[in-house]
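Hi team,

Filling in the usual template for the complex we talked about on Friday. All components are listed, including any nucleic acid strands or ligand strings, so the model treats them as one assembly.

SUBMITTER: L.P.
PURPOSE: interface mapping
COMPONENTS: two
RESIDUES: 774
SEQUENCES:
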Amino acid sequence: MFFKDLSLRYKIPLRIAALATGTAFLLASTLVYRDSKDLRNNLIENAEKMGRVIAGMLVEPMLHDDVWRVFEIISTPFKYPETNSKDLNDEYILVLNASNTVYASTKPELFPMQKDPASIDPRYADVLKALADESSSLTRIVEPRQYENIFLLIPIHSDGHRIGTLVMSYSNFPFIEHFLTLTRDAAIITLLVLAFLLPLGVYWGHKMAVPLVQLSDVMRNITPTLPESDEIKIYESGDEIGQLGKAFKRMLVELKEKEQLQQHVIASDRLAAIGRLTAGIAHEINNPLGGMLNAISTFKKHGVQDPFTLKTFSILERGLIQIKETVAALLVEAKARSRPFDHNDIEDICTLMQSGVQAKLVNFTRDCEFVDTQSIPSTLARQVIINLLLNAIHATQQYGHVNLRIRREGDALMIVVSNDGSYIPPEKIAYLFEPFTSLGENGSGLGLWVVYQIVQQLGGSINVHSELNETMFTVQIPLQETT
Amino acid sequence: MTVKKYWYRLVCLCLLALPLAATLHAEEQRAGMPVRIGLTPVFLDHQVAFNNEWKLYLEKHLGHPVIFIQRGSYREIAELLHDGKLDFAWLSGYPYVRNKDDLQLVAVPLYKRKPLYQSYIIVPASDKKTRTIQDLRGKSFAFADPDSNSGYLYIVYLLSKQGENPSTFFSRTFFAWSHVNVIEAVASGLAQGGAVDGYVWDTLVLTHPELTARNRILNRSPQFGSAPFVAGRAVSKAQLTQFQQVLVDMLHDKNGHNLLEQLNLNGFVYADEHLYDAIEQMSRFVEERKQ
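RESULT (copied from the run log):
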């Protein structure tokens, strides 16, 4: 259960490690098993060949009852004892005569002549049962499981009669020792191989898991907000995981765009609703307001001229005028016809800005790439640019930078105002163009509202991009068809 | 002198010269013929390097090539000698006394300054219980060769003398075809007792003590005439004398002395056939018992 919930970062390397270990051990044990089996078979095969040679040589001395020759022949393989003498305890050759008593042996002290081997070593009671078939000349290999010996029984035949049996006893001890040595060697080699394979396997497993883990991390992090496309760290390759990652990234980018679009639509809708509401209210206010101001004016001209009433009416009039101005500011009317925007407008604007620029010692630069007149109402364009520049100068620090760039881009005029002033947090950007949203202590909070309303009415768009060192307002206004 | 007389003389001369010519011719022929010497395990006959050295020595002093011939048993050597296929042989006293009529005594080795040796009856060193020959009853026993005095005749004689039947006294007997083999058979435990040439045993004590140490001597026989060098009947007196002289002179020659030392002998001496009376007596006794 724990493993099920484990990260792929560990799960894949662990599985590879398990696989490598399992394979190494399986391979090693198969080889050990095969080698032991081969060794055993080879030994038995060689022993049988040697036994047959010896049995052939024994026929004549046995027929001549020459015990010494028989002893000499069977002793030959034991003339040069191996250094490992403990192995030889169970390794000997017995020659039995036809009645299965000892004719000669390489261990005469243990197996004296004429004795029944079973009376010396009870194992022979079982072993010699294999000799039941008198006429068979086949070698019998008897390996009683509980005994540690292998017995090769080779009949000695003369003229179709069995005149005796050659019994070769081999100890299992060398096999066991060989098996243990082999197992130890195999274990060492396996461990060495694993010492190489395991880190490699773990490394590969890790490499394999990393893209998946990255993908998973990115997936986990898409809530609550979708990450920016450059924040999406995804392993890039042509393989399936890479393709999946790419597709996922593309999906995220699209989702982000969709989200931005949605937010934009929502903001536009809201601003439009506010605009409609404001315009509606402004109209509703403007009508009675006009009446009220007319009435006050008429009253001041023709009504009672008592000073207190006049003072009161003056207060009313000033209040109503303030309302009218505010309402007028809210009610941006783009219908007013004016001449097209040209160079002089920019010069005017720059002149207008001089006092603010000089007050703050702002480094004001401009970059205007057009020469001819542009079919955009100059009054509105000027207001947009002035409002943006005022904001920019206002937002920048002393000795800050403010830049104005105006250029033609297809059928639209691009106005870009940027400064190195304070950064606008994203949550504020959404409400930036709503009326009475002020970033500083000064200002009515209507400047950007007016800009937005004008741009909207001219069928353009406005974008804000704010980073730590630069805040940039980009306005795009389509050129009007000249009539 | 008449022509007839002259012819008669000439024929006579020729007739007289014939045997001489034949003799001269035989001598000439023999000069290129090798001297064939049969060896038996009455000494350590399987030391190839020593045999080659001895062969060269004999060739040098005999003036003839020498061939050593070895066989698996005394009997085969005795038969070759009988058939004239061997000139000389170093045989046991037992086949000599049985074939005395066919053989001529050449020389006898001096062992411990005497032309005598003994037969030893040995048992494995691990066998501490056996004290007398009688204790070997029912056990397995190794003889050297059916034609060996020390390795067969003596023990058979001893048992017969004690009223035993040698063929049933032991549970199992076999021939090992050499004294060294008997010692090995007893040492390995294949046989529980064995009869060996005392001279061979003593020599092995010097050269292969690890082998003799695995056995112990149970019984030492009285002294018998040592195994003699004999010649076949066909060997001429001159040949015999020459060979006899070469053997006896080995003692006076540096190389010969060296070879004798390797043989663990003091030399070779002329001997009388009565040296083997004791063996002949035993042989006769055993033969009579058989019948």
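MY TAKE: The longest strand of chain B covers residues 103-110. The radius of gyration of chain B is 23 Å.

Thanks, L.
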